[in-house]
């Protein structure tokens, strides 16, 4: 089975990233859970992964790529008829990632926390156990919600 090492960064926030190792039999829900924990999130929201395979800053290119979304996001709202896959059913190995591929992750469809995920390495593992591990944490996580002054409200 494959063992993936991903570098997960938040788009627009330099020098903050996490290295996460995930077995190929883990689901995209498992990867989401690791990212959620790694960036100190506390309030759950819907999320999607977009399998672009190439690095891009074009949101059009990102949102037109294969979308793997939270089961509650499987309806066609804003999907424009595109077929989506469920994060609960799709395993990491199912999307045929290669080293240096890049894909994107959107957490919270209101606040739009966009992440860039780069495949740092793929190694063969003899273990068949599902595993997800946060290996490295660089930089302080930004707050999930900005602190607003009472004047701003």
CATH class: Alpha Beta
Helix content estimate: 10-25%
Cα-based radius of gyration, to the nearest Å = 16 Å
What order do the SSEs take from the amino end to the carboxyl end, as H and E? EEHEHEEEEE
Shape label: globular
Structural class by sheet pairing and helices: mainly beta
What is the arithmetic mean of pLDDT? 91
- Which parts are unreliable, with pLDDT below 50 for 5 consecutive residues or more? none
Strand content: 35-45%
Can you count the helices?
Answer: 2
Q: How is the largest sheet built, in terms of strand order?
A: 5-4-3-6-7-1-2-8
Tally of strands: 8
The CATH topology annotation reads as Structural Genomics Hypothetical 15.5 Kd Protein In mrcA-pckA Intergenic Region, Chain A
Task: Tally the structural domains.
Answer: 1
């Amino acid at each position: 089975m494959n063992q993936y090492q991903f570098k997960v960064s938040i788009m627009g926030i330099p020098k903050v990233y996490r290295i996460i190792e995930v077995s190929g039999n883990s689901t995209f829900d498992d990867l989401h859970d690791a990212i959620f924990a790694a960036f100190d999130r506390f309030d759950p929201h819907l999320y999607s992964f977009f399998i672009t395979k190439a690095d891009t800053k074009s949101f059009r290119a990102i949102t037109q790529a294969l979308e793997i979304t939270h089961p509650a996001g499987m309806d066609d709202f804003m999907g424009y008829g595109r077929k989506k896959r469920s994060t609960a059913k799709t395993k990491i190995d199912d999307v045929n990632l290669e080293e240096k591929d890049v894909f994107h992750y959107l957490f919270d469809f209101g606040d739009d926390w966009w992440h860039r995920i780069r495949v740092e390495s793929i190694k063969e593992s003899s273990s068949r156990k599902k595993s997800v591990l946060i290996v490295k944490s660089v930089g302080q996580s930004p707050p999930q919600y900005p602190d607003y002054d009472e004047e701003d409200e």
